[in-house]
Amino acid sequence: MSKNSIVRGTVLLTSATFISKFIGMIYTIPFESLVGATGGTLYGLAYGPYTIFISLSTIGIPLAVSKFVAKYNSMGDYQTSYRMYQLALRLMFITGLVTFAILFGGANALASIYIPDNSEGIAVEDVAMVIRMISFALIIIPPMSITRGFFQGYQSMGPTAVSQVIEQFVRIGFLLAAVYAVIHIFGGTITTAVGFATFSAFIGAIAAAIVLFWYWKKRKRHINLYIQQQTVDRTNISSRALFKELFSYAGPFVFIGLAIPLYQQIDAITFSRTLINMGEAQAVIDHAFSNINLYGHKLIMIPITLATGTSLATLPTLTKSFVDRNKPLLFQQINQSLQLIVLFVLPAVVGMSILSHEIWGAFYGVNDFIDLNGYLLGWYAPVALFFALFTVTSSILQAISQQRFAIYSLFIGLVLKSILTIPFLQWFGPQGAVIATWIATFITVVANLWKIKQAIAFSLRQFLKRSMLMGIFTIFMALAVAVVRYLLHFVVTYQDGRLANVIILAITVTIGAFVYLWFSYHSTLLERIAGGRVRILDRIMKR
After folding, report:
1. How many beta carbons lie within 10 A of that of residue 164, not counting itself?
2. Is CB count within 10 Å lower at the N or C end of the chain?
C-alpha cells in the first residue's frame, strides 16, 4: 500500500466534505436574510433531534461496515465482506423506517422539552411541525450510508465524495427556492418556510441515493470479479456472528457520530431556560442561540471538514496496518493523521477568532447584534480544533480495536458539559455555554491521546514537537493578521457594511495564509507532514 494513501483519501473526501460544508455555510447568508434569528433558532431545534436519530437509525454501521470490509478484504475474503454488506443493508431499511415513525410521532414531546413555558417566541407547535418535516429523510439516509461505507471499505472514496456534493447541491437548491417561494410568493409564515427548509434533507437524500445506485451498477462487475477470483476459503461465520462482530465495531461509531449534536442538545435544553430565568431579553437569546446552534456553527464546521475527511480515509487504512501488525507504518499513519489536523485547523481557528466580527459581518451583514454575534463567534471558533482532534483520535481508537474507550471519553466530556453549562451561563452569559464546550472537548482529546499512547506504545513526541512548531507559526500568522487588521481600521472597519468586511477579510486572510505557509514550507514542515505532495507550493515559492 502506498505510504501516501491517507493523504490521497483525505484530499478526496476532504475536498468533497469541504465543498458540501462550504455550500452548507454559504446558504445561511440568504437563509438568514429570509428567516432571521428566529427562523435560525427554529431550524436548529429541528436539526438537533434529527441528527441524533440519524445516528441511532444507522447505529454506527456505515463506518463499521467500512472497517469490516477493509479487514476481510485484506484477508482476501471478499465473499464475507459482501455478505455483510447485504445483511447490513436490510437492517438499515428497517431501522430507517422505525426511527422515522418514532421521530414523526414523538415530535410534540420533543418540542416541549426545548421550549420553556414562559417563552415569548417560538411555540411548541412550530418546533413539532418542522421536526415532522425533517423526519422523512430517515427513510432513505440509513441504507444510502451503508453503501458509502461499503465503497470506503474498498478504499474507493469517489462514490462517497460525489454523492455528498450532489446531495448538498440539491438540498440547498430546494431549500432556498422553497423558503423564498413560501415567504415572497405565497405569503406564508416563517414556520412554514423553515418546515420546507428541513424537508430539503429528504430531497437531497433522494439525489444522493440515485448517484450511489449509478456507481453501484458501474462497479458491480469489478466487485463480482474479486469475489469470483477469491483464492482463500470463505470464512464460515453465521449471520448472527457476523452481526455480533459488526456491532462490536459499530457501537462506538454511534456515540462518536453523536458527539457534536449531543453537545448542542445540552445547549438546546439549558440555554433559553437559564437565560430567560436570568431576565435576558428574548431577542438576545434568539441571536445568541442561533449563532452557536446554526449560523456560527456552520462557520466553525468548515475547519472540521478536514477531520471528517481524514477520519473516513484513515479508518480502512489504519485497520489494515493494525491487522497486518505493521507497527512502523501504523505509527507513521497515526502521526500523519494527527499532524494534518493541527497543520490546517489550528491557524484557521485562530484566524477566525481574530477576525470574528469581520467574518460575521461579511456573511450575515451588519446589524444591531453584530457585536454580540462577533464576540460569540470569536469564543466559539477554537471549539473546531477540539472537535476535529476528537473525531480523528476516536477514529484511530476504533482502528486499533479500542472502541470502548472512545465511548468512555465522550461520556466524560458530556458529563462535564452538562455540569458546567448552567453555572457558566449564569456567570459569563451566553459565552458560558461555549466555554463549557471548550473544557469538555479538550478533556476528551487528552484522554483519547493518552489511550492511543498506552494501547499500542505509540510515542506522542513527534506529534507534540511538530504541534509546538505549528503553534509558533500560527503566532506569527496571528500577529501579521492583527497588525494588518489594525492598520486597515484607520480606513475601514467591520461596522461599515458587508462589502467593507469582505475587503478586510480578503486582505488579512491572504497575508495571514501567506505568512503561515511561508514558514511551514521553508521549515520543510509541509513536506514532512504531507509526504512531499507540495509541488504546487514549490512552484509558487520559487517564483
Report:
1. 20
2. C
Distance CA 135, CA 212 (A): 22
Q: Which residue has the higher pLDDT, 513 or 320?
A: 513
C-alpha cell at 466: 511538530
**C-alpha dist (Å) from residue 418 to 140, 223, 252, 280, 433:** 33, 47, 20, 21, 10
If we measure between CA atoms, which residue out of 132, 148, 129, 140 comes closest to residue 171? Answer: 140
Residue in the block written with cell 452538562: 418
DSSP per position, 146-163: HHHHHHHHTT--HHHHHH
Q: How far apart are CA 126 and CA 45, in angstroms?
A: 10
d(CA 340, CA 205): 30
Lowest mean pLDDT among 69-73, 143-147, 186-190: 69-73
pLDDT of 24 > 90? The answer is no
Give pairs for 449-457: CB < 8 Å, separation 24+.
449/393, 451/397, 451/402, 451/405, 451/409, 452/334, 452/393, 452/396, 452/397, 452/400, 452/402, 455/397, 455/400, 455/402, 455/405, 456/327, 456/330, 456/331, 456/400
The DSSP symbol for 490 reads T
Residue that wins the pLDDT comparison between 346 and 242:
346
Q: Name the residue among 104, 110, 106 with its Cα closest to residue 124.
A: 110
Cell 430507517 belongs to residue = 96
How far is it, in rounded angstroms, from Cα 245 to Cα 67? 11
DSSP letter string over 193-251? HHHHHHHHHHHHHHHHHHHHHHHHHHHHHHHHHHHHT--SPPP---HHHHHHHHHHHHH
Mapped onto helix, strand or coil, the DSSP state of residue 280 is coil
What pLDDT shows up at residue 266? Answer: 92
Q: What is the pLDDT of residue 2?
A: 43
CB 432, CB 381: distance < 8 Å? no
End-to-end CA distance of the chain: 35
Mapping DSSP onto H, E and C, the string for 31-84 reads: HHHHHHHHHHHHHHHHHHHHHHHHHHHHCCHHHHHHHHHHHHHHCCCHHHHHHH
What is the average pLDDT value for the chain, to the nearest integer?
84
Weakest mean pLDDT among 8-17, 65-74, 277-286, 342-351: 8-17
**CA atoms of 173 and 23, how far apart (whole Å):** 10
Q: Are 90 and 74 in contact (CB under 8 A)?
A: no
State what percent of residues in the chain have pLDDT above 70: 87
Cα–Cα dist 107/135, whole Å: 9
Per-residue model confidence as pLDDT tens digits over 420-436:
999 999 999 999 999 99
- pLDDT, tens digit (0-9, with 9 covering 90-100), for 203-224: 999 999 999 999 888 888 888 8
Which helix or strand (DSSP H or E) is residue 259 part of?
helix 239-277
